[in-house]
Design brief:
CATH topology of the largest domain: Dihydrodipicolinate Reductase, domain 2
Keywords: NAD, Oxidoreductase
Distance between the termini: 17 Å
Subunit structure: Homotetramer.
Bound molecules: nicotinamide-adenine-dinucleotide, 1,2,3,4,5,6-hexahydroxy-cyclohexane
CATH architecture of the largest domain: 2-Layer Sandwich
Structural class: alpha/beta
Strand content: 15-25%
CATH class of the largest domain: Alpha Beta
Largest sheet: 7 strands, mixed
Protein name: Inositol 2-dehydrogenase
Number of helices: 11
Shape: globular
InterPro entries: Gfo-Idh-MocA_inositol_DH, Gfo/Idh/MocA-like_OxRdtase_C, Gfo/Idh/MocA-like_OxRdtase_N, MI/DCI_dehydrogenase, NAD(P)-bd_dom_sf
Number of strands: 15
Catalytic activity: myo-inositol + NAD(+) = scyllo-inosose + NADH + H(+)
C-alpha cells in the first residue's frame, strides 16, 4: 500500500492526544506529521517522544505542513466547520470528531461544500458504529430474526461533565451519539423529539439540567428513548436495548471482572469513554486509515453528521420549549445515496 499516510491532527486535548497516541502506537499505515492547537504547549506535550512532527498554533498552517495527506479533526465542535472547509479546499480526506458541526445551518454548509467537491472526503467520528457490541446488535436487527424493532431504550451516563458543559450539550454533544446510533441501527430517520426534564441531580453543577429524558420518533414508527445523565458520579455507562416484535436484545452491560467476597459481588464499571470505547476508537481510526489509503471513504458520512445536527438542534428546541419538535431534513444530494459507493 506504499508510504505511510501523513496525518495532521487538529486539537491536542483529550481526544486529540488520544488519537495521536493511537496513530503512533496502535494503528498501522499512518503517522502524525503535524499537530495544531492554539495551546502550543499542550500540543507539544501530546507529541512528546514522536519525531518529525510540525507543531503549529493554527489549523491552516498545520494542513500546509510538509507530508500532510489527511486530517483528523479533534478540536471543539464550533471549530469544525472552518477546519472541514480548509481540508476540502485542499482536497484532503478527513476524520472529524462528532459533532460534525453543532448547528444545522453550518452542517448544511458542509454538505454543500463536499457536494461541490463532487466526491466524499470526510468521515464523521461516530465510533459506536465500530463498537463490537453495537455491531452485533446491528447485524441481529438486520437479520430480522426478532422481527421489526419497535423501541430502543438507551442509557448514556457520564461520571461528570466538563466545566463548560451546558444543558444543550447533553443533547447536541452527548445524545448526538444515540441520534447516530439509532439512525444506523434502525435504518430510519428521526422525525420528532421531546425532552423531559426531571428535577436536576443535586450533584450537577448549578443551572445544568441534568439528567434529561429524550424521546425520538422515527419515520418507521419506532420510538427511541434516551436517559442522559452526565454527572451520575458512579460510572460511564452506555446501554441500548432493542425491543422487537419477537424478542429483545440488550448491549452495554459491564463485561469486566466480577469480584465476589464477604457475601457480596462487585463488578468494575468503566469511568470514561476512553476506556469503554477504546477498541471502537482503535477500529474506527484503523478503518479510516485503511479506507483513505485505498482512496475510499467509509463510516458515518457528512450527510449523517448533518442529520445528527438537525435532530440535535430540534432536541435543544424541545428542551427549551418543553414541547414536541418535528425534524425536517433538506433533500439528500445524490452523493450520499448509499448506492453511490465509497470511492473518493
Ligand atoms: N467520540 C467521542 O466519544 C468523543 C469523546 C470526547 C470528545 N469528543 C469530541 O472531540 C472533540 C474534542 O473534544 P475534547 O474532549 O478533546 O476537547 P478538549 O477541550 O480536551 O480539547 C480540545 C483542544 O482543541 C484545541 N483547540 C481549540 N480551538 C482549536 C482550533 N481552532 N484548532 C485546533 N485546536 C483547537 C484546544 O486548545 C484544546 O487543546 C469535540 O468535538 C468532542 O465532541 C468525542
Ligand atoms: O464529548 C463527549 C463524548 O462524545 C462522549 O462519548 C460522551 O459520552 C460525552 O457525553 C460527551 O460529552
Amino acid at each position: 500500500m506504499g508510504d505511510l499516510l501523513g496525518v495532521a491532527v487538529l486539537g491536542a486535548g483529550h481526544m486529540g492526544a488520544d488519537h495521536i497516541r493511537r496513530l503512533d502506537q496502535v494503528v498501522s499505515g499512518a503517522r502524525v506529521v503535524a499537530v495544531a492547537d492554539p495551546d502550543v504547549e499542550r500540543a507539544k506535550e501530546a507529541v512528546a517522544g514522536l519525531t518529525g512532527v510540525s507543531v503549529r498554533p493554527d489549523a491552516e498552517a498545520a494542513l500546509d505542513a510538509p507530508g500532510v495527506a489527511a486530517v483528523l479533526i479533534a478540536s471543539p465542535g464550533p471549530a469544525h466547520e472552518e477546519a472541514l472547509l480548509a481540508a476540502f479546499a485542499r482536497g484532503l480526506p478527513v476524520l472529524c470528531e462528532k459533532p460534525m458541526v453543532p448547528d444545522s445551518t453550518g452542517a448544511l454548509r458542509i454538505v454543500e461544500a463536499e457536494t461541490r467537491v463532487g466526491r466524499r472526503l470526510a468521515q464523521i467520528g461516530f465510533m459506536r458504529r465500530y463498537d463490537a457490541e453495537y455491531r452485533r446488535l446491528k447485524s441481529l436487527l438486520d437479520g430480522g430474526s426478532l422481527g421489526r424493532p419497535l423501541m430502543l431504550h438507551c442509557t448514556h451516563r457520564n461520571v461528570s461533565s466538563p466545566p463548560d458543559f451546558t444543558s444543550a450539550m447533553l443533547v447536541n454533544s452527548s445524545v448526538s451519539h444515540e441520534i447516530d446510533a439509532a439512525r444506523w441501527l434502525l435504518g430510519q430517520e428521526l422525525t420528532a423529539v421531546t425532552v423531559l426534564r426531571p428535577a436536576p441531580s443535586s450533584d450537577a453543577p448549578a443551572g445544568l439540567l441534568d439528567p434529561q429524558f429524550v424521546l425520538f420518533e422515527t419515520d418507521g414508527g419506532a420510538l427511541v428513548d434516551v436517559e442522559v445523565f452526565v454527572n451520575c458520579g458512579f460510572g460511564y455507562q452506555v446501554r441500548c436495548e432493542a425491543v422487537c416484535e419477537r424478542g429483545s436484545a440488550r448491549i452495554g452491560d459491564e463485561h469486566t471482572m466480577v469480584v465476589t467476597t464477604g457475601g457480596a459481588a462487585r463488578e468494575e464499571v468503566a469511568q470514561d469513554y476512553l476506556v469503554r470505547f477504546a477498541a471502537a476508537y482503535d477500529r474506527e481510526v484503523q478503518a479510516w486509515v485503511d479506507a483513505t489509503r485505498r482512496g475510499e471513504v467509509t463510516g458515518a458520512s457528512v450527510w449523517d453528521g448533518y442529520a445528527s445536527s438537525v435532530v440535535a438542534e430540534a432536541g435543544v428546541r424541545a428542551l427549551e420549549s418543553g414541547g414536541r419538535v418535528t425534524v425536517g431534513l433538506a433533500p439528500r444530494p445524490d452523493l450520499y445515496d448509499p448506492r453511490a459507493g465509497v470511492s473518493r
